[in-house]
Each structure stands twice: as C-alpha cells, then as structure tokens.
Amino acid sequence: MKKQRINGPVEATKSVISKTVISLTATSLFAGTDKNRQTRQCRPRSLKQNAGK
Questions:
Q1: Separation CA 30–CA 24 (nearest Å)
Q2: How far apart are CA 50 and CA 43, in angstroms?
Q3: Sign of torsion, CA 22 25 27 30?
Q4: 0.85 exceeded by the pTM?
Q5: How do the domains of the chain map onto residue ranges?
Q6: What does each C-alpha distance from 43 to 39, 40, 46, 48, 53 come to in angstroms?
Q7: DSSP string, 1-53
Q8: Number of other residues whose CB lies within 10 A of the CB of residue 46
Q9: pLDDT value at 44 more than 70
C-alpha cells in the first residue's frame, strides 16, 4: 500500500508535467507558424507598395 500511495502522486505529477510540456510545445509551434505566416504576408505587401510607388 505504501508503494501505491507513493507512486500515485508521482504518476499524477508526471502526467501533469507531460501535459504542460505538450501544451507548451504546441503553443510554441503555433506561434512559430503564425510568425511565419505574418512575415510571408508582409513581404509581398511591402514589395507591392514599393512597386506602386
């Protein structure tokens, strides 16, 4: 019983840590894609503006 009581919280903390790590990596990946999209969208616009001028 003592081993189960010790393993319970440890497994719970491990699952929480893994979930937080997955969420952090997902947010960082989404942020990276958003940044790439913004840069891709801004570059053609700046070129068009320069060509128009």
A1: 10
A2: 11
A3: negative
A4: no
A5: 23-53
A6: 6, 6, 5, 9, 16
A7: -HHHHHHHHHHHHHHHHHHHHHHHHHHHHHHHHHHHHHHHHHHHHHHHHHHH-
A8: 10
A9: no
